[in-house]
Design brief:
The protein is mainly alpha-helical. The chain contains 5 helices and no strands.
Length: 137
């Protein structure tokens, strides 16, 4: 004999932040798994790591591919250093966000603005009253 499991009740507003964090973490982990599979597939296609740049840009002259690869490497190192810091530097990200926005790169500016918010202090959702839900002091 089987029984029907009891359905969970809707989370209380204070629990939504924890649920959101857990679900977002699962999504990020899934994205990393997919990225790993894509990385492995790209290497499998290229055959050797030193052939990866040319595999990404097969119709671009080799010297241009190398220049693109060198820039991507520098960007990756900068991003890695930024992520290893114990805290984001939102003021630096604000400066970069404004520069992107002023240049018309609105999607990139929005992404940088989102990253900058991670380094700012916010009230915990459980500390915010029912009548001020979503407002942080």
């Amino acid at each position: 004999m089987t029984t029907t499991p009891e359905l969970p009740t809707a989370p209380a507003p204070a629990d939504i932040a924890a649920l959101d964090e857990a679900l977002h973490g699962r999504n990020l982990r899934s994205a990393h798994v997919i990225a790993g599979i894509l990385d492995a597939g790209l290497l499998n296609h290229a055959g050797r790591p030193d052939k990866l740049p040319a595999a990404l840009f097969p119709d671009v002259p080799e010297d241009a591919v190398q220049a693109i690869w060198n820039m991507a490497l520098a960007v990756g190192i900068w991003a890695g250093k930024a992520m290893l810091r114990p805290q984001w530097q939102p003021e630096e990200l604000d400066r970069l966000q404004r520069a992107l926005d002023e240049a018309g790169h609105h999607a990139m500016a929005g992404s940088v603005a989102t990253a900058a918010q991670c380094g700012r202090a916010h009230a915990h959702p459980a500390d915010v009253g029912v009548w001020t839900w979503g407002e942080h002091e």
